[in-house]
Design brief:
2 copies of one chain form a homodimer. Chain A has 215 residues and is an alpha+beta fold. Chain A has one domain: Pnp Oxidase, Chain A, CATH 2.30.110.10. Helix content of chain A is 20%, strand content 37%. In chain A, strands 1, 2, 3, 6, 7, 10 and 11 form a 7-stranded antiparallel β-sheet that branches. In chain A, a hairpin with a 2-residue loop joins β4 and β5. Chain A is globular, with a radius of gyration of 21 Å.
């Protein structure tokens, strides 16, 4: 459980659902496929979905060198990266206590550019492997030109927190007598049957990474 | 497709994936179960996952009257509400062109408090029905006290945009000859078997709303 690493990263609402352990935080960041990155431009907050990959004590994001988000973050504006995993509908006996089960992580801080083609290549490897473990070794590696046009940013996990809701609905005592079904409908991000690219050459079967993953 | 309602809500990266039609925007907001709400406090952006429900030309969120987010938003600070639906892993022939299929909406603006117990009750109905259509009529309605402790905020959809990536990977021409499987692994948020509350009274079967939904 640990304690909040800073006052501003302390979970304020429902603090009993907070968890500041890096093990918990890392597991949520690693499972989530998409992060929501917040930054401010001209006084207006923007929240942009983006791919991320945790490597050690940092979470990486990447984008075009021409992107406003990348430029601002690289210049050191304050950022907030949030991921949320949806685990279930919580159906209570009263409308008021309906909720969701979820696991989320909020990371506050300032990002730094990951510099140099080799470090950027390692980052691109992390993004590719996060989507599908084993994929990196099966595909064409990035060219010098591709690495040049990509910027990678690293946000430290020093100010991070997790928040989780799990388990049954919590109803008011008197409501447990109601004739209403209550419980949880689990939700998971489930893979379907892989759809081959329309331009896939004949005779090419799913690569080992996909087969290992259940494709 | 339409055009961006304002310069700041114009999609800057990959503008060919932008869609400013309300029909597209509404469908994405309605399908998404969780929104990420961005606001600024003491110069630091925060991105907080929260339930939302679109009603007409506004998207509603709710929270405790004691919540900092609710207090700030009700005071009229600039906000950004973003939802993202994850549709698939895009597996290209090169590491560089790996991506995700997704549908996202970004709403910029300033929220207003929804005032009065009746309007707040309608909002709570919208949240409950969004989780599970038909649920509202099966459960105990909110009490006066519950409505008093809840604040509802409405953010207009006047400055909103959608961004979508669909379909096959886009590889470089020369890469289509590579011996690499490429395609899309579809991803959907799939419901599992409903788990009855440990304190569910004997003999209570899943309510019609749950049965209708496939539970």
């Amino acid at each position: 459980m640990a304690t909040a690493p800073s006052e501003r990263s302390r979970v304020r609402r429902a603090p009993k659902r907070a968890d500041y352990d890096r093990e918990t935080i890392d597991a949520i960041l690693d499972e989530a496929l998409v992060a929501h990155l917040g930054f401010v431009a001209d006084g207006q907050p923007y929240v942009i979905p983006t791919l991320h990959a945790r490597v050690g004590d940092e979470v990486l994001i990447h984008g075009s060198a021409a992107s406003r988000m990348v430029t601002l973050l690289g210049a050191g504006v304050p950022a907030c990266l949030t991921v949320t995993l949806i685990d279930g509908l919580v159906l209570a006996r009263s409308a008021f206590h309906h909720s969701m089960n979820y696991r989320s992580v909020v990371v506050l801080g300032t990002a730094r550019f990951v510099e140099g083609p080799e470090a950027r290549e390692r980052a691109l490897e992390a993004f590719t492997e996060k989507l599908l473990p084993g994929r990196w070794d099966e595909v064409r590696p990035p060219t010098r030109q591709e690495l040049k046009g990509t910027r990678v940013l690293a946000l430290p996990l020093t100010e991070s927190s997790a928040k989780l809701r799990t388990g049954d609905p919590v109803d008011d005592d008197e409501d447990y007598n109601l004739d209403v079904w209550a419980g949880v409908v689990p939700l998971t991000l489930a893979p379907g049957t892989p759809q081959p690219d329309a331009r896939l050459r004949e005779g090419i079967t799913p690569s080992p990474s996909l087969a290992a993953w259940g494709g």
